[in-house]
Specification:
Elements: H1 6-11, E1 14-17, H2 25-34, E2 38-41, H3 49-62, E3 68-71, E4 73-75, E5 78-79, H4 91-97, H5 100-116, H6 148-164, E6 171-174, H7 195-211, E7 219-222, H8 243-253, E8 259-264, H9 268-273, H10 276-286, E9 290-293, H11 297-312, H12 318-334, H13 343-366
Parallel strand pairs: 1-2, 1-9, 2-3, 6-7, 7-8, 8-9
Antiparallel strand pairs: 4-5
Helix pairs in contact: 4-13, 5-6, 5-13, 6-7, 10-11
Amino acid sequence: MVSLSLEHRLGQLLFVGITGTTVDDDTRKLLQTVQPGGIILFARNIESSEQVADLNMELRRVLKVAPLISIDQEGGRVDRLKKICPPMPSVQKLRALDDARCAHEHGSITAELLRLLGFNMNFAPVVDIAVHEDADNALQERCFGTKTQKIIRLSSAYLEGLQNGSIIGCGKHFPGLGDSVVDSHKKLPVVERSEEKLKAQDLQIYQDLMVKLNSQLQVIMIAHAVYPALDNSNPPIPASLSAKIVTDLLRSKMEFQGLAISDDMEMGAISEAMGFSEAVLSAVKAGEDMMLICQSPERIMEASEALTRAAREGKITSRRIETSLNRIARIKSMAASPLTFETNHFKAICDKISELSERIDSELKRI
């Protein structure tokens, strides 16, 4: 990364979405201009297994520094690959079965599938506590349980299966989004938990996963939600833009050495809090290493230009940039190269997914 221009060094702090199923001329120009450190794919980018593998290979060719290539592949209602392979069992089913071996197998099969398709990262597991099961907070069917220890046991087993299969996992949504009652995609949630309850329950999950030997959490996604008990700023600041939460709590008190990534900066929760460029700069100042920008090419360019301008004006110091670049480089050094795509291998993984789903459904009927 040393040979990169300032603009491209700052591009490493961006984790971006693309619009189509191929690297067309507009996408190529955007990626070459910004040189983002990460790419996230969605269902809109998925057409066939071979197409996804080819797309991810082409993304690597376009970028000067090998990117993190990720996806939200949790299973159940958040299954970006269900168009091309059998649906993955939901976390809700894993929770009901309460079998860590099954959660591990789920993670292992997911890793094999993602690596064959050219990914090196997965934005999973969700480690939020299921508090408001019926609330419209976008977490339905995605949480491993209502109790801290159960979530630790099942999510660590899943994470071990995922990371032993050479796919980097990401715990989300720090410091804990389960007690929210609105969807941060649309509005800014306020989580009214006491500091004592957050520490004893939500934060304990992250603290445990940070030190697990075989399932150590290396990447954490920060929530777009306000936590008055942790940051009582006025006007309220989302955790993703809060130095008190990202730097003071996560980095200093909890001693997290890995990568901190924002949730999507285009969400309603952020636009409700402040302007886009201001929010991107605030996220960096808060201590985040990478910012997700999932939808708009215009927003990606705006973020790139805002960061470059701020760095040239001295609003972001060289030391601050280097700190994040070093963390990004360390995580990238853990990323495995993709497997060579073979149709027969893909079909074999699809069979494993179907067999796992059938076995889970069968065992749940016995309970």
